[in-house]
Design goal:
The chain is about 70% helix and about 0% strand. It is built from eleven helices and no strands. It has helices at about 5-20, 35-45, 50-60, 60-65, 75-80, 80-90, 100-110, 115-140, 145-150, 155-170, 180-190. Helix 2 (about 35-45) crosses helix 8 and helix 3 (about 50-60) crosses helix 8. This is HD/PDEase domain-containing protein.
Length: about 190
């Protein structure tokens, strides 16, 4: 599955939420957030995911990033089906205004243990792109990028990414994205040496 009306509908919604509502960019860059969502969907498509998983990959941040439209699980169920909505809700972090970075990451890490393979696959694509971007960007400009542009310093980022990788691998050891995740995690961790 490369493209469908459902995937186009997901792209349209992601563009609306991440571009039109606030022109959101990746931390520490001028790169639009929409690129992360599209790349997450592309990673899933290249790994053989079906339409629902690709759609969930494109929409995985839409609930937490919708500031004006306020996308809900109910809306996602109506527009994209129960499976997509469940995956997106699983990957949605708690409110940034109520929880610290550490708390939000720990809540997701605790919840991973309850996820099905669908949610693990989509989170794996998300983390693969994030780790790859963090490793490449830190290598280019230095790990101080985290102190300047992120909610947590480099050392905390490494620890949480390692713990998430271990949790995802424990649930699904044969995950086809795991070798790439480990490759970029190793590159990311090596910046601290």
């Amino acid at each position: 599955m490369i493209f469908s009306e459902k995937i186009q509908k997901a792209i349209d919604l992601a563009i609306k939420i991440h571009q039109i509502e606030g022109a959101q960019v990746r931390k520490g860059t001028t790169i639009p957030v929409i690129t992360h969502l599209l790349i997450t969907g592309l990673i899933l498509a290249r790994a053989g995911a079906d339409e629902d998983l690709i759609t969930a990959g494109i929409l995985h941040d839409v609930i937490e990033d919708s500031t004006k439209t306020k996308i809900t699980k109910k809306y996602l169920e109506k527009e994209f089906g129960n499976r997509v909505a469940r995956i997106v809700v699983n990957l949605t972090e708690k409110s940034k205004s109520k929880y610290s970075w550490d708390q939000r990451k720990q809540i997701i890490l605790n919840n991973v243990k309850k996820w099905d393979r669908d949610s693990v696959f989509v989170k794996s694509a998300d983390i693969l792109h994030n780790i790859r971007d963090n490793a490449v960007e830190s290598k280019r400009v230095g790990k101080d990028i985290f102190a300047k542009h992120f909610n947590a310093p480099y050392v905390k980022q490494v620890i949480k990414k390692r713990l998430m990788t271990e949790a995802l691998e424990k649930i699904w050891p044969q995950n086809p994205l795991m070798p790439e995740i480990k490759k970029y995690l190793k590159m990311f961790e090596s910046l601290g040496k």
